[in-house]
């Protein structure tokens, strides 16, 4: 039972639970792919889930920052705050768009 918990939360060693991966993979999603480790698959799925959410939120924050910039109407402090909001949101958008590449790079760096 305890090894099941470790595998589910990703704390188990990949080689020790290689046989159990197929079982959990079939429970979580069909067609996980053969040869990939549990943690590698977990991180890939998390990235695929959160990247569109972060990208959508970043676009919404960029629109919010643009509205704040337009409505600041000559207030220098308001303009600077709006620019910081937009810059931070653009950084988040770039990271969200690059999330899959970052995950693949880290997976190759750790498990290769």
Textual characterization of the structure:
By secondary structure, the chain is mostly helical. It has one domain (2-111). It has helices spanning 2-9, 18-28, 38-71, 76-97, 99-111. It is elongated.
Task: Label this structure with key terms.
112 residues, mainly alpha, 5 helices, 79% helix, elongated
Average residue pLDDT: 75
Give the uncertain stretches in residue-range form.
Answer: none
Specify Rg, calculated over alpha carbons.
Answer: 20 Å
In the residues, how many domains can be counted?
Answer: 1
Largest sheet: none
Give the N-to-C terminal Cα separation: 30 Å
Task: Give the fraction of residues assigned to helices.
Answer: over 70%
Q: What is the global morphology?
A: elongated
Can you count the helices?
5
User: Could you tell me the strand content as a percent range?
Assistant: under 5%
The helix/strand order is HHHHH
Please identify the structural class as seen in this structure.
mainly alpha
Record field, number of beta strands = 0
């Amino acid at each position: 039972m305890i090894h099941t918990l470790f595998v589910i939360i990703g704390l188990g060693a990949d080689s020790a639970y290689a046989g159990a991966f197929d079982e959990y993979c079939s429970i979580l999603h069909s067609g996980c792919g053969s040869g990939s480790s549990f943690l590698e698959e977990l991180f890939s799925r998390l990235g695929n889930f959160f990247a569109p959410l972060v990208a959508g939120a970043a676009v919404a924050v960029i629109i919010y920052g643009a509205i704040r910039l337009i409505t600041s109407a000559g207030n220098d402090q308001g303009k600077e705050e709006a620019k910081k909001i937009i810059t931070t949101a653009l950084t988040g958008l770039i990271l969200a768009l690059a999330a899959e590449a970052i995950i693949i790079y880290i997976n190759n760096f750790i498990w290769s």
